[in-house]
Design a protein that fits this description.
A 3-stranded parallel beta sheet has the order 1-2-3, covered by helices on one side. 45% of the residues lie in helices and 17% in strands. The chain is globular and about 45 Å long. The protein has 3 helices and 3 strands, in the order βαβαβα. The chain has one domain: Rossmann fold, CATH 3.40.50.2000. It is of the alpha/beta class and 69 residues long.
Length: 69
Amino acid sequence: MIVKLSAIGDVVQTLPMVEALRDRYPQAQIDWLVEEEPSDLLIGHPALNRVIVSRRKSWPKRLFRKWEF
C-alpha cells in the first residue's frame, strides 16, 4: 500500500515508481491511500488495484460534532 495523502505534485512524481512496481511485480496488489483532492489522478490508473480515498481533513469536524451542545 502506498500512502501519499495529498500534495498533487508528490502524487504525480510517485506514479513512475508505481508503474515500475507493476512492471516488476505484475501480480502484486498495489493500493494507494490518498485524500480526495488528488484522487482523480489515480482512480482508474492501470498500475493500481485500488484507490482508497481518505477524508482525513474532515475527521476533526466529525469528531467534535459528536460533542456539540
